[in-house]
Amino acid sequence: MDSPIDTQDTQTKPADSGNPFSSVPIEITISVGKARPLIRDLLKLGKDAVLPLDKNVDDPVELYVGDRLIARGELEELEGDQKGQLAVRLTEVANLQDGLA
């Protein structure tokens, strides 16, 4: 899904405290790439097999809510007490207010 997204300021914006849904968690899926092996090759996969993706390590990742592309970003590793945990630094963010009532 290579749909363009409208970019806006990527800084965190304050939550709408008047909206009762503002504190409901939502799941975001981060897509790092796709693999398209032949079924015969897929059936041969086992432990320690390597499945190449269609992206490079430095390529942007895409963030989705359901099927809707909401942002793009770069993978990075957290520091300090959370060292080793992956995170995403947003580089493009869709204007999520469009089309919402």
From TrEMBL:
Top-level lineage group: Bacteria
Chain residue ranges for the region called Disordered: 1-23
GO-annotated cellular components: bacterial-type flagellum basal body; plasma membrane
Classification via InterPro entries: FliN-like_C (IPR001543), FliN/MopA/SpaO (IPR051469), FliN_T3SS_HrcQb (IPR001172), SpoA-like_sf (IPR036429)
SUPFAM superfamilies: Surface presentation of antigens (SPOA)
GO molecular function: cytoskeletal motor activity
Subcellular location as annotated: Cell membrane
Annotated keywords: Cell membrane, Chemotaxis, Flagellar rotation, Membrane
Domain Flagellar motor switch protein FliN-like C-terminal: from-to ranges: 22-94
Entry keyword annotation includes Membrane: yes
Bilayer topology: Peripheral membrane protein
Pfam families: FliMN_C
GO biological process: bacterial-type flagellum-dependent cell motility; chemotaxis
Main location group: membrane
Residue ranges with Polar residues bias: 1-22
Family: Belongs to the FliN/MopA/SpaO family.
Protein name (Swiss-Prot/TrEMBL): Flagellar motor switch protein FliN
Organism, scientific name: Pelagivirga sediminicola
Lineage: Bacteria, Pseudomonadati, Pseudomonadota, Alphaproteobacteria, Rhodobacterales
